[in-house]
Amino acid sequence: MRDFFDEFEYRSANAMLRYYPQGCALDRFFLGVRVGVHHVSNSDVSPSGNDSATFGGLGFDLGYTWLLGAQERVGVSIAAGATRLFGSSSTARP
User: Fold this and answer.
1) Fewer CB within a 10 Å sphere, N or C end of the chain?
2) Is residue 73 part of a domain?
3) For the chain, what is the mean pLDDT?
4) How far apart are CA 33 and CA 52, in angstroms?
């Protein structure tokens, strides 16, 4: 018996735009918008042996960035957000 996750694939590509409301880019709080493409497939779901779908996504992020080091050349960010998926071009067959 094959494991479900052995046949499952997820891929995404996103573009993000961040706004730093305090006026100091790449430091402190930020609000972000993201747009992307998401592809999901599982070759063990449908009787034909292949089921996949592609979605567009639109979302947001809220986060905080720290600049590290004396010359602040390294940045570390933590963020949380959500993405809503739209539409589907599914290749599922009954």
Assistant:
1) N
2) yes
3) 86
4) 26
Q: Residue 33 is encoded by which pair of tokens?
A: 């918008």
Assess if residue 54 is contained within a domain: yes
Nearest to 30 by CA among 54, 72, 63, 52: 63
Per residue, the 3-state secondary structure of 28-47, as one string, reads: EEEEEEEEEEEEEEECCCCC
Residue range of the domain that includes 23 = 4-85
User: Which residues sit opposite 12 in a β-bridge?
Assistant: 38
Count the domains in the chain: 1
Residue 27 lies in a domain: yes
Match 């046949």 to its residue by tokens.
7
| Distance spanning both ends of the chain, measured CA to CA | 22
Written as six digits, the tokens of 52 are: 């996949």
Is residue 94 one of the residues assigned to a domain? Answer: no
12: nearest Cα among 92, 80, 83, 61? 83
In the predicted structure, residue 64 carries a pLDDT above the cut 90: yes
pTM over 0.85? The answer is: no
